[in-house]
Design a protein that fits this description.
The complex is a heterodimer. By secondary structure, chain A is of the alpha+beta class. Chain A contains 9 helices and 7 strands. Helix content of chain B is 65%, strand content 0%. Classes of the chains: A alpha+beta, B mainly alpha. Chain B: Keywords: Sigma factor, Transcription, Transcription regulation.
Amino acid sequence: MSMNRPDETAFHAWVDGELAPERAAEVGQWLSQHPAEAARVAALQAQCAGLRALRAEVLDEPVPPRLRRALRRPPPQWRWPHALAAGVMLCLGMGLGYGLGDRAPGASPQADALTRLPVFVREAAAAHAVYVPEQRHPVEVAAQQQAHLVQWLSKRLGVRLKVPALDAQGFHLVGGRLLPGEAGQARAQFMYQDAAGTRVTLYVSVLAREDRAAAAPVAFQWTGDESARGFYWIDGRQGYAVSAALPRERLHALAEAIYHQLG
Amino acid sequence: MDIDAALVHIPRLRRYARALVGDAARADDLVQDTLERACQKWALWRPPTAATADQVQAALRGWLLTLMHNLFANQWRQAARQRTIDWNETREPGHDPTSGLGLRLDLERALALLAPQSREVLLLVGMEQYSYAETAEMLGIPVGTVMSRLARAREQLRRLMEGEAPAPVTLKAVK
């Protein structure tokens, strides 16, 4: 009984053990009747053995400390996907709204992480946690009166505010409210919602000079907590925090859309 | 699961990267970038459900290799863009390092002459012993492409190592 010459990929699949037993037996039998091809396939097997053994000594080398550190320590700066204007400081705060209750300093890694965050980010997390579950009064001024909302909050914060549109990302503006900062400053919160009812808040604060300086060395933090996460950044005098219980990519896309509209 | 679980995979990643890029320092740079990327993306890593500890570790290694592939692919895409520009601008002939090559090469040097995509497939299947399906998933290409690339790469490698003239490489000029 003779069969047609198996095609080239079949020889490779045979060498790699990728063929079903029946087909493998056929190819094996064909090779046993074709010594020249069998020699070529044997060379193939030798090549595979060479690759398997290649650089095996690296496995026994001690792991360089810098590679251990790469896992242990967050990277020195968060790499935003697009080059952002120089002078804009971008920070990433994760785990907003987590463990904001009675937290003693050093009580948990999360609490530690939170105390290292700039004040306005903690305020943003608290405001997010309080108003996002609100059913009847999520905002003070609804989106229908957007012009009034912007004018009012701009006046109270002392800067010209813009309300980014997130419709392209599936979120519509619910409205906004005025909030007190930790030292009695005026802060603004805008709330957005998607069709599924997921809410995103954008918290805007005007920072004092010392706050801007103090906010600089923020490390990348990750709590693994699913309830609320956020990105924040400081652009000139203003600090922005975007919070939502969303996967990081989606939140990132929102933060980026907001950043570009505000810039 | 903690990201420290990735620690045990570093030796394998280093070895794979060494075979992939050749130079030891550049290989460790690639591993470092991969581990940093893994830190950033850790929240996205989902261990397979109802899996044994070994299967979870295998899945983690596959995830790390996928991250490494993405970084590596970015590198050679950038390099290729650079080369294309150079070639268009200078029209310098005789840049093909394999032309007129008539000597037997050891495995590593022969490997270095293959296209980066060929090396990846060869090493994932040959060195790391991944199945075609797993390799396809990591590289984000169809299984059929893995098979054809593998057959072509092995043939090129054989020719280089046996000192035969390599199959002509078609150079695409991007314009």
